[in-house]
Prior knowledge:
With 450 residues, the protein is α/β, with parallel strands linked by helices.
Amino acid sequence: MSAQERRIIYAHIGQPGYTTDIDCYLRHGGYETLKKAFAMPPQAVCDEVKTSGLRGRGGAGFPTGVKWSFLDRKSGKPVYLVVNADESEPGTYKDRQIIYNDPHQIVEGTLITAYAIQAKQAFIYIRGEFQHGAKLLEKAIAEAKAHHFCGNNILGSDYSVEIIVHRGGGCYVCGEETGLIESLEGKRGYPRIKPPYFPAVLGLYNCPTIVNNAETMAQVKHIIAMGGAEFAKIGVPGDRGTHIWGVSGLVKRPGLYEIEAGKATFGQLLYDFCGGPLDGRTFKAIIPGGSSTKILKFGDRFKGKLPSGEEFDWALEDIPLDANSIMACGTGLGTGGTIVLDDSVEMIQALANLNAFYAHETCGQCTPCREGSLWLSRITKRIAAGGGREEDVPMLKDIADQVAGRTICAHGEAVAWPVQSAVPKFREEYLESVRRRNKGEPSPYALKLI
């Protein structure tokens, strides 16, 4: 039986006649959930989100309600809310579609969250290149203020909050919450050391701060609309709600698909939704959750035990699309940005592309990341150019092992994980690429990535 989409966040996106203005949003029930939230005590809103079991949709997958509970409410300092709409992970484009097609959904979720944590100031930090998206959000906020949903004395209450759209500088590490905070404060986007700089205690302006992903804000709106317990019926234990899968690369129907967590497999995603491989091709590998997640190879089997204690033995096509199942197979759900590679791709070219990106995007603060990312990029470029040595292949893995776990932020893992996972899985192909290119033999691979 073919899997089906369950559109909640994308319910109206793509519908004929649905527009980004507030009148259209109101006709479809917009801001009714905000009114419901304002009829509840702020802590009750927090409790509903905690009950829902929602995990953040920014990549780390930390439980949203639990994160809110870490706020230092005893400090006497103001509380801030920061919405991360940076979306800088290659292969990821789910959040910008909400911004471009249904921005009020994010604004309403932001207002509900700000009320729940009693923040008087909220920021939406959007990637600098998303000029049109920033303008749409600013327009949506202005419309919300004109209807008394935002600003002073919202809905006639004594609660007020301002939302500011802040355009970032287009830096990958500013997708990391403390790097984002540094950038928002007008400084270089250097991630902070944890501890002591856990944002819930010492965040923006050294005040308690919640940083949540843009899609997470939209999910909050639907949690309050249907109730936390009802939302918790969607998905599977440990991963509730829907996930938006952005599939790019070598499939017949790349695109965005919203699927209930755990209710479909990678095989169904790639064949039922995406139409399978291009004619005459076969699938080779996928990067499941954005370019920094560990690669999975077709033909491998994945064995282990789920958090429930259940043992599994899956082919790649059998892996359910939920956070715990994907993690048990040695990688991560990440941002749901699935990149598909087929037999036309030479894996050393793919790895050279990734390494070049992460070498360019390192902030340079940590020596292992600054130096290691550059070494990895130079070696893979050298192999791809025909000057590689067979000992370069194990050296790639050795360098990646010296980077992972030795940096302030997760950029070190983003640098290392693609290499750590790809080299063991495609070692023989890498060695063959070294030998063939050094002999000047023609490439058997059709796709040229570099």
